[in-house]
UniProtKB/TrEMBL annotation:
<dbReference type="InterPro" id="IPR050523">
    <property type="entry name" value="AKR_Detox_Biosynth"/>
</dbReference>
<dbReference type="InterPro" id="IPR023210">
    <property type="entry name" value="NADP_OxRdtase_dom"/>
</dbReference>
<dbReference type="Pfam" id="PF00248">
    <property type="entry name" value="Aldo_ket_red"/>
</dbReference>
<protein>
    <submittedName>
        <fullName>Aldo/keto reductase</fullName>
    </submittedName>
</protein>
<dbReference type="InterPro" id="IPR020471">
    <property type="entry name" value="AKR"/>
</dbReference>
<dbReference type="InterPro" id="IPR036812">
    <property type="entry name" value="NAD(P)_OxRdtase_dom_sf"/>
</dbReference>
<keyword id="KW-0560">Oxidoreductase</keyword>
<feature type="domain" description="NADP-dependent oxidoreductase">
    <location>
        <begin position="17"/>
        <end position="314"/>
    </location>
</feature>
Amino acid sequence: MEYRYLGRTGVKVSEFSLGGASFGSRASEEESIKIIDEALDFGINLIDTSNIYGKGESERIIGKALKNKRQEVVLATKFGAEAADQVNQSGASRRWIRTAVEQSLSRLQTDYIDLYQLHLPFEFVAYEEILLTLNDLVKEGKIQHIGTSNHLGWQIVQAQNISDRYGFQRLASEQTPYSIINRKMEFELAEVAQRYDLSLFVYSPLSGGLLTGKYKAGEAARSDSRAAVLKGYADALDPQSADNKHKFEVIDQLQQLANESGMSLANMAIAFTQAHPAVTSTLWGPRTFEQLKSYMSGAQTRLGTDVLDAIDDIVPPGKRIDDKEQTWMPHWMNTERRRRHVY
């Protein structure tokens, strides 16, 4: 396992990290703890979660699993994407951030969070207010470092400039989707991260399962696959949809390349994310222990120049094959923000 610096903090994190999105929802507590223990034994030292995963269950399970191992782990969680029914129980206000961090600390059974991340950009609070609050929490020792998730390059630049102007804690990381068929990160964000001293944590390296090798263009998805289980809700995964024809043709080309290179498509896809020099760590989000073991089996895979060049020929750098992979929609894309008058 290779370990790399988290921004300019001096803290080192593993090249692969464990994401807890399935813990307490798609993975039972017992299975989740088994996954966590195995990941730590493998050398992973960064575990990432959010206060919304499993409605807080992910944090609770991770806290239980790490009760006697806290010093071994760089623990990261997120706030700001809550869908609360009550007023002032979500978002990025000073009031809510202070409430959210206390809730996370309690569920995680820890005195401090190593990396506290704003899960999504938040329209209605100025970055000055958010950064001031996070800076206060750093001074109080409740969090060590701060980061973002799903942000655009200009937002990160704005936040870093505000921190520099007022002497606030600077962002140490950004978490963003990145895969062979979703290379949009390369167009701008990778360069911003390197120029502004951020680590990039990349998630969805298999594009929601599309790059596992189990889907074929025009063929029905297996009954136990995510595409079948979520049919009607996750149309981007449906290999029989006419809208997805080009995407699955591209995936077939990638599968052929992986076969010719003597590796699985999944291993090639994960290794691809590690080939970019701006990437600090690739997040694994296993739902089962077997999935974790499959990730681990390909962890040493490295792609040569010939394979990377061939991937570039199939999916050009900076290109996202399917815009349905957009993980969030910025507020300025709302109808009332795109039209001068709405009748």
